[in-house]
Design a protein that fits this description.
two-stranded antiparallel ribbon, Elongation factor Ts, mitochondrial, Helicase, Ruva Protein, domain 3, 2 domains, translation elongation factor activity, mitochondrion, 139 residues, elongation factor
């Protein structure tokens, strides 16, 4: 008799697969469109009644709020390490200083590659601005 009651209770538990597929589709679209994590996209859709436009706006507001908070927290940190990247071609040159917090980052191949790529981009910009009388600077 107990077995029959248990089977009756489980019979009423049903999840519509169409509803799940629709949510997965919206979740996939939102993740592809925004690049935010699965968890954040799911939360945004749930809070905004599965409206993808409202969810995207909510995600942007959250990112802005959290991003500014994190940036202000990191603003005072010292960046005593780094490197200087120089790119020269003909009569044009670009010299860019890159700062970081640790020497481990400064010695990292990805950081060094980024420095080379950015200094090359600055050199290309300087070549296009050859008519200018003032040197290019960060201001």
């Amino acid at each position: 008799m107990l077995y029959n009651r248990a089977s009756l209770l489980t019979r009423f538990f049903n999840v519509s697969s169409n509803h799940l597929n629709a949510n997965k589709s919206l979740l996939g679209k939102l993740r592809k469109k925004t690049g935010y994590s699965f968890t954040n996209c799911k939360k945004a859709l749930e809070l905004n009644e599965h409206d993808i436009d409202k969810a995207e706006k909510w995600l942007q507001e959250q990112a802005k709020t959290l991003g500014w908070a994190k940036a202000s927290k990191l603003a005072g940190r010292k960046t005593s390490q780094g490197l200087i990247s120089i790119a020269i071609e003909g009569k044009h040159a670009a010299m860019v200083e890159f700062n970081c917090e640790t020497d481990f980052v400064a010695r990292n191949k990805q950081f060094q590659g980024m420095a080379l790529a950015i200094s090359a981009a600055c050199l290309n910009y300087a070549k296009t601005q050859a008519q200018a009388t003032e040197p290019c600077s960060k201001e």
